[in-house]
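Chain X:
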Amino acid sequence: MAYETASPSGLRRVVAASMAGTVVEWYEFFLYASASTLVLGTVFFPPSDDPFSGIIAAFVTYAIGFIARPLGGIVFGHLGDRYGRKKLLQASILIIGAATFLIGCLPGFAQVGYLAPALLVLLRFAQGFAIGGEWGGAVLLVAEHSPREQRGFWASWPQAAVPVGNLLATLVLFALSSTLSQDAFLGWGWRIAFWLSAVIVLIGWYIRTKVTEAPIFLEMKQAQEQEASKSFGPLEVVRRYPRGVLVAMGLRVAENILYYVVVTFSIVYLTQTVKEATSATLLILAGAHVVHFLVIPLFGRLSDRWGRKPVYATGAVLGAAWGFFAFPMMNTGNPVVIWAAIALGLVFHAAMYAGQPAIMAEMFPTRMRYSGVSLGYQVTSIFAGSLAP
């Protein structure tokens, strides 16, 4: 599959624009994930003597976002294949930004009763819907500008933006939880983290306005406009490329489960079972996110050199073994050992995650690529990512 690629400087601009928006998206998405374990169960659900009941209820709303993601992938994929990646990426960042800001404004259960979790579910759905359309557009924008022999490396950079967004969310929550009393943090402090999204959204949206569509998409668009018959969207991609959709879904299962167990469930385990302080847990997690960011492009480069399959398979095998030694390491209570356990899990995840954009982009033709990668990537999130914690 031949691509007309961008110049080195142009490619770097595309990568920067793609990463900037993805950082924003995942700051907000994982802010909710972290807040689910720390705050939301207490604020938005009925009081209970069991500390886990509120957390479980918050995780149910967390799962709502994953259910919304395939729908977002279908809608954004269809529109992105028709109108372009850039416009849809600008829309996705605004939707999730608005939803996240409004979560910070919601009244709690003590003020409005069951209306509080109902509104939380609605906004959580909007977050997941926008995330469902984000990933496919961001990685395709880079993949379609990249030379084939370096596509694994360049297309891994939007993936590396995920831990950056996660790191920002973790650091903001750490700063708030460590400087405020528990009552202040639960009462109003956590809301600041959600409100800060407005500033980050505006920066990310502006950067995305400066990016251009890939030449291959513009060529396809021009050719398609000259045809009498047009057929776009998820139904066509499922009918014509069922194997590609199934392979894309399969690539996500192990990687998705591992990631959310390592990042999300570890917070619950460390704070509730190991009895680590919330601030210490968040700081440990922040250090692991730095490692994750550094190794994703490395594995992207290795996938160009050694092949996508060997790198992915190595991560899958090591990831399957992670739980057997990671939780005993966490039980030691030693911060360095705990950090090593989480960091190793994210390294194994990176080996599976880095090459996915290049693999999936090469499975589908340009005119249905956004639909294909979004559908394959997001459907798996329902039964893998949402249920893992």
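Chain Y:
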Amino acid sequence: METQPPQALASSQAAAEVSSIALSMRIPPFWRENPRLWYHSFEAATDDLKKSSAQLTQMVLVQLEKPDIEQISDILFNIPKEQQYQAIKERLISVYEESDSRQFQKLLAEMELGDQKPTQLLRRMRNLARDKISDSTLRMMWTKLLPAHVRSVLAVSEQFSSKTTLEELAMLADKMIEQTQEVR
């Protein structure tokens, strides 16, 4: 067996450390408000690394705070290391992700345009709706949250083209609001 010279070994260890640091910078702290999206981001960052389930578990654990770890302590103590990653993922999502009924309630009662663009509002509403309501219902709910002058222009534009998608209407609403803000 051929051994590496000390310089080559040190160089390879340094490269591994740099790679590890770069990866840890790409992984954000755990997002309690959107655990499913956090896992999507985490898995995208680690996908090409070919890490074992146990290694992925360790990478997740360093991103969690004490309350999060308390939610999964039984998994850490009672499930074999190679099965922990998936069990932890499922638990954290089930603990922190809002139920469908709560998300629908938010959609009905807590949405407002505020400082965001109409396209951003529509995206938030779509995320909360989770494909459980039709586009026509979502369109009605979304347009009610827009300023009156924007609603009236959108109503006219829909009459001229019934093929206008909700996304196209949202982009049009963005432009209208942008133009009225420039005038002020």
